[in-house]
Amino acid sequence: MKQTLIALVEDKPGVLNRVASLFRRRNFNIESLAVGHSETPGISRMTIVTDEEEALRRNVVRQNLLKLINVIEVDDVTDQPVVVRETALIKVRADATKRAEIMNITDIYRARIVDVATESLIVEITGDADKIASMADMLRPFGIIEMARTGALAMTRGVVTPRDPASYAKYAAKVGQ
Amino acid sequence: MAEIKTGAEIVMECLIREGVEVVFGYPGGANLPIYDAFNFYPQLRHVLTRHEQGATHAADGYARVTGKVGVAMATSGPGATNMVTGIATAKMDSSPIVCITGQVATTAIGGDAFQETDVTGVTLPVTKHNYLVTDVRDLAYTIKEAFYIARTGRPGPVLIDIPKDVQNDSCEFVYPEDPIDLPGYHPADRATEEQVARALELINSAKKPVILAGHGVLQSGATQEVLKMAEKGGIPIACTLLGLGGIPASHPLNLGMMGMHGEAAANHAIQNADLLLAFGMRFDDRVTGKLATYSPNSKKIHIDIDASELNKNVRVDVAINADLRVVLEQFNGDVEAVDRAEWLGTIRDWQEDSSQRDILNTDDGIFRAAQAIFDLWKFSKDNNPVIVSDVGQHQMLEAQYFKHEKPHTLITSGGLGTMGFSLPAAIGARFGAPETQEVWVVVGDGSIQMTITELMTAVQENLNINICIINNGYLGMVRQWQQLFYDERYAETPILSPDYVKLAEAYGMQGLRVSRREDTLDALKKARAHRGPSLIEFVVEQHDMVYPMVPAGADLHEMIRRPTA
User: Fold this and answer.
1) Does A161 touch chain B (CB under 8 A)?
2) Any chain B CB within 8 A of the CB of A81?
């Protein structure tokens, strides 16, 4: 069972380093970390997946993340209803004789083939970690040449968001400068 | 049209607007423009320390005495890395300082230029926050933000790294008058009504409560509120090392210091309590002993400005993230007067046992460190002086035998335990304390030799500080552990000293030596009468131990006690 934290941070140089440093100091392994823009300009959203099962220790990290000046909000969504998605690109060895079989698997997983070459093709799949692992297992016999994963993105279900957008929207202009 | 100013001038303008009176620092290649600007801002006094570590400790000492932000400056590379120990010291003890470092030009950053170090990277884990300013137009706002972050919430060190070209660049200078408002930084304020109600219920029903008074009592200015609660409820108070002075030592409810070398009565009270009221302290391992057996039968209320301290080391029943003084004002009207005479009587019995074991009872003609410190207290106490102690046996003896009556009269490196802290911190304290308040340094022969270079700073500035070196010829606290836990194998703890009297004279200060207790008073009088710095070497018994002692990892009540004679 992986643990998932969502952090909203100011989009400034060095913030990723500050966040990662707190995990490093406590010797927490980061399974995946996905960073990108949020709905508010100047504010980035991080989804951090760790293997720390003890909620108390996670809370210490959460509190310490909140202590960082550039960190606006941190939510531990491990025990909340969330949608978790990850995208993977998988380059598979495939000549003309194997393509149909791989396309069949791709359909079953509702994945897409996004590049075809004479000896290989690239499959794009989006889903939770289990789905991606399962598809990778199916493709492995053909020969996986490369795999790239985005890391998990998480969002709580329904209108319950980890924070009230109004509470930080006023900063958007300033931090965007 | 606003005035055009250089980055260096903007630094000066902003420091003045923050109310800075004195800057401790050291010039170098990458901060030359800032140093040049000092020529044009004579209202900013600069004190040249002899090492950048000294500058940070001096800023720290100034901050701890005044409650204002201390300022230290250094150049890039080695200048900045020399600051790291001082910054880490300030971080651990929540001391508000702003460090301004020069950096190589923005065009050279990342290219391993001469005297280049990634200073924001190096200091990231030991600062509350840090900045690399790459545009002169960001400078004024950044400096204002840095001071705000340093002094608010849980105070701490903030570093601003300014590349040389940014110091030279110019822009319109408009001081940001709006209050700082950051999206991710909102210092805590009040407790909720529910928290107050739950806490009051525990307080009013407790039979054996103890208040644990930490540094937060001093930093939030909550002395009167804590005393009001303690007096009304008949609740005894134990202090952390940095909490000393927050509660007058002579107050009948004050049990003195808790923890590894704390008063036995305070530790017994904590272990037997049914309620702990932890006020602005963080359950450091030096005050809890073994966590599994720490105060096993008590409910716990923890009030701290830093949410990350709550439930970190000790699980508590009521955790309140707020300003201590504000919370106590919320509480105090409803704390009931409860008769706790039985509990206080039990504690008095423990105190009686301790006073019989006091080393001051021994009268064998041997001159002891504890006597020197006790005599310094008797001599100087009416002045309520600032005592700046260093780290080691003398630090613990000072905490035990110097009775601090007022807040901010003990300055010491508690959390990080930085040897060499005291002399430079005293230089800063001297600038912060009123002229009539004396500043005394209590330092060991090991600690003084770590930053003895700052003697010359005290001489150059002609500072009235009196340095008491407690010389036992050993790194005494390490030797104590070797004696107790390493079968008296004294690896590298015997330490030689220079002739301190000659050294003092070479530096141009008064030097005195005391080898017999009966000469103590005379030396202290001479130090007091002398204008400028004085140094007194107290040559004391070499093998004294600091008791009581809770061995590392032992239960708090499992103290090694001084054998009764």
Assistant:
1) no
2) no
A94 and A31 part of one domain: no
Q: Give the pLDDT of residue B562.
A: 87
pLDDT tens digits, residue range A146-163? 999 999 999 999 876 555
H-run or E-run covering B70: strand B70-74
Residue A177 has pLDDT above 50, yes or no: no
User: Same domain for A118 and A103?
Assistant: yes
Name residues 33-62 of chain A within 8 A of B (Cβ). Answer: 43, 56, 59-60
Torsion sign, CA atoms B546, B551, B552, B555: negative
Specify the DSSP class assigned to residue B373.
H
Catalytic residue positions of B, numbered: 52, 114-115, 164, 477
Q: Do both A72 and A108 map to the same domain?
A: no
- pLDDT of amino acid B555: 96
Residue B131 distance to chain A (closest CA, Å): 9
Same domain, A65 and A15: yes
Q: Per-residue pLDDT tens for A37-56?
A: 999 999 999 999 988 777 77
Nearest to B184 among A21, A60, A70 (CB): A70
Judged by a CB distance cut-off of 8 A, whether residue A5 touches chain B is no
> Quick one: A11 and A76 in the same domain?
yes
Contact between B83 and B72 under an 8 Å Cβ cutoff? The reply is: yes
For residue A52, what are the domain limits?
A: 3-81+157-176
**A77-93 pLDDT, tens per residue?**
988 999 999 999 999 99
3 state SS of B543:
coil
Contact at CB, A66 and B182, closer than 8 angstroms:
no
Q: What is the CATH number of the domain that holds A102?
A: 3.30.70.1150
**Rounded to whole angstroms, how far apart are CA atoms B96 and A61?**
24
A89 lies in the same domain as A58: no
Question: Is some CB atom of chain B closer than 8 A to the CB atom of A21?
Answer: yes
- Among B453, B327, B356, B443, which Cα is nearest to B395's? B443
Q: How many domains does chain A have?
A: 2
Of residues B345, B301, B329, the one with CA closest to residue B228: B329
Residue with tokens 């140089």: A13
Residue B129 gets which letter from DSSP?
A: E
Q: Going from the N-terminus, what domains does chain B have, and what CATH number goes with each?
A: 4-172 (3.40.50.970), 193-353 (3.40.50.1220), 360-539 (3.40.50.970)
A56 and A110 share one domain: no
Mean per-residue pLDDT, B156-183: 96
ipTM of this predicted structure: 0.88
Instruction: Give the pLDDT score at A164.
Output: 58
pTM passes above 0.90: yes
